[in-house]
Amino acid sequence: VELPPEEQAMIERRRRLLGPAYRLMYQHPVHIVRGDGVWLYDQSGKAYMDVYNNVASVGHCHPRVARAIADQVQVLATNTRYLHDTILGYAERLLATFPDALGHLMFTCTGSEANDLALRAAKAYTGGQGIIVTECAYHGITQAIAEISPSLGPNVDLGAHVRTVPAPDLYRSRNGEVADQLRRDVEAALADLKRHGIKPAAFICDGVFSSDGVFTEPAGFLAGAVEAVRAAGALYIADEVQSGFGRTGSHLWGFQRHGLVPDIVTLGKPMGNGYPVAGVVVKPSIIAEFGSSARYFNTFGGNTVATTAAMAVLEVIQDEALMDNALKVGAYLADGLRELMSEYQVIGDVRHAGLFFGVEIVGDRQSKRPDASLTAKLVDGLRERQVLISATGPRANVLKIRPPLVFTRDNADFFIAQLRAVLAAQPGA
Ligand code: PMP
């Protein structure tokens, strides 16, 4: 696409200043200056519907969260080495949403750091090193976590202690089930670690398998795999960076859909609605070993402004009944997408939990041939219609839809209308 000269200049400036590792979304990148609820605005005031950003989960620039941050930063902005009420009040309030066994909360700034800390704790507790992840998992950016994030691609080496298992993909499953298959795959990974003399430390997975392609059904499918992991003396780490804080509608936490109590839970993205705050929730017995042999100080993690932001987010989720909204509007949007599926053969599958969707785009329904090129056209076509979305999965053919939890039925109608128009413009769709 031919870009206006000022946008082209900005892209070049970015490249010159930020270097080669950053990526922009869309063939025609979006230059935004403001956010409000489910909308992002460019300089001319043009509105873009954000159906993708899982960070601004209670809505962009939510006034209550923004005010709480602004008020706190004028009063006190410092670290966890002092007594302060907010960190304790927040810990009490957050831990009350978890099963009783998960009794401690530790703070980090990013999901990557949370997963890094979770691995350190799991390794200290089990004495093992082996980690099992799904084939296209993403857990973050540190050296240790990049080594367990196969979605970063073949140029980033997985650690020698890492084993991957196929994601629980019901749509492409050969025998029409995923629970027993995942259990068998995890058992095979454990056996392979053993063969190599590597003691297992943990199985870590995203509650909705977002980078693997979004796999949500049937709820409960994780139980057998986790049983196998525990039987081998390893831990189950629930990465709730994507699936946490009410997005799945039925529960605050993704692992609850599976009827499980994880050993460690990691949190991030929506926790501060854009303010960097993340954390680890853990069984006291599991962190005991790590805590007695190592001290933990994270300069910005759990600072007074971060915990204030997190408190405001949790209050908004509860006071505005956003989980209930995710459940209801999620079901409504699912109906709309399934109606589209009856009109367009290229939609192979619609799956979701609450307001987290994966929509599989295929060449034809019989072969289920993934169509990454059409998926990219849909993503860019929607951007031209001012709807911001992206794609995921190992074959880049799954539309990933995660609007802010304040998404309304009207918003869903608007989104479906735009997607229908983009599909109608594709030859052969
Ligand atoms: N885990 C999952 C499942 C994620 O999606 C991400 C971020 N995309 C992370 C961890 C890492 O979080 P952060 O970018 O805050 O380090």
UniProtKB/TrEMBL annotation:
Keywords: Aminotransferase, Pyridoxal phosphate, Transferase. Its cofactor is pyridoxal 5'-phosphate. One of its GO terms (molecular function) is transaminase activity. Pfam families: Aminotran_3. The keyword Kinase does not apply. SUPFAM superfamilies: PLP-dependent transferases (SSF53383). InterPro entries: Aminotrans_3, Aminotrans_3_PPA_site, PyrdxlP-dep_Trfase, PyrdxlP-dep_Trfase_major, PyrdxlP-dep_Trfase_small. Belongs to the class-III pyridoxal-phosphate-dependent aminotransferase family. PANTHER family: ALANINE--GLYOXYLATE AMINOTRANSFERASE 2-LIKE (PTHR45688:SF13), PTHR45688. This is 4-aminobutyrate aminotransferase. It comes from Halotalea alkalilenta. The lineage of its organism: Bacteria, Pseudomonadati, Pseudomonadota, Gammaproteobacteria, Oceanospirillales.
